[in-house]
Write a structure and sequence with these properties.
Largest sheet: 2 strands, antiparallel
CATH architecture of the largest domain: Up-down Bundle
Structural class: mainly alpha
Number of strands: 2
Strand order of the largest sheet: 1-2
CATH class of the largest domain: Mainly Alpha
Number of helices: 11
Distance between the termini: 55 Å
Shape: elongated
CATH topology of the largest domain: Four Helix Bundle (Hemerythrin (Met), subunit A)
Order of helices and strands: HHHEEHHHHHHHH
Length: 233
């Protein structure tokens, strides 16, 4: 059993991290209103002053804004994480292979760390997304949604906040690539489910080498299929 020192943080810091995490995971969307300070204090069982302190820090960091005495998630949240032109450059890229190549550079390493760090809740969430992908194989939108969630949750299981921020920053572009890909490929969905199961099993077994290898195999299969699709156009 490995034990590490537990970092002591203040209650307000805990609230800051909680709200940031929910924003980055898309549970609170840009432009969405946050509950009132009173409601948040009641739900979190803390003083209203503690909530107010946390919100002030989040405003300073650019995660939320105040409008008409209401706290809302910043509409330009990704500008707070990336250089202003970073997402724009990605979205303007004419080469759809850039995304697959970028994913090949980073996702195998993410899968490796997920196998080392994933908690029981992470495993259960990944299982759930795999099952929902299988059940929605005839529904393009739902299939892509759960495919995207599966990959995003692997990065959360890795525990690396920098990678979490990067993957969430490019998730819209990832989804568009996935929609194009699934729409134009006859049997990629069946193969994707098999690869996802293999990746999940490696993470469940705490096998970083296998998790990395399976992610490479999955993305190489996607890369090969994309070349075939583009060669027909």
């Amino acid at each position: 059993m490995e034990l590490e020192p537990i970092e002591k943080i203040s209650v307000s810091d805990g609230i800051i991290e909680l709200i940031k995490k929910q924003i980055m995971e898309g549970k609170i969307r840009p432009g969405e209103k946050l509950p009132s300070e009173e409601k948040m204090a009641e739900k979190l069982r803390v003083g209203r002053g503690t909530v107010r302190e946390a919100l002030k820090v989040l405003i300073y960091m650019g995660f939320i804004e105040r409008k008409n005495k209401t706290s809302i998630v910043s509409q330009n949240i990704h500008d707070k994480i990336f250089p202003k032109d970073f997402i724009g450059r990605l979205k303007q890229s004419k080469n759809v292979m850039d995304m697959i190549e970028a994913r090949l550079m980073i996702e195998p390493g993410i899968a490796r760390y997920a196998a080392l760090k994933a908690k029981r809740d992470d495993i259960e969430t990944l299982k759930e997304y795999c099952e929902k992908m299988e059940r929605s194989i005839k529904d393009l939108e739902q299939f892509v949604t759960f495919n995207n969630k599966f990959h995003l949750h692997i990065v959360h299981a890795s525990g690396n906040q920098i990678m979490i921020d990067i993957m969430h920053g490019i998730q819209d572009l990832m989804r568009k690539n996935q929609e194009f890909f699934v729409l134009n490929s006859m049997n990629i969905k069946d193969r994707s489910i098999v690869y996802h199961r293999n990746i999940l099993n490696a993470i469940m077994n705490g096998d970083p080498d296998s998790a990395e290898k399976q992610m490479v195999a999955h993305l190489k299969d996607v890369e090969k299929e994309m070349y075939l699709i583009l060669s027909k156009e």
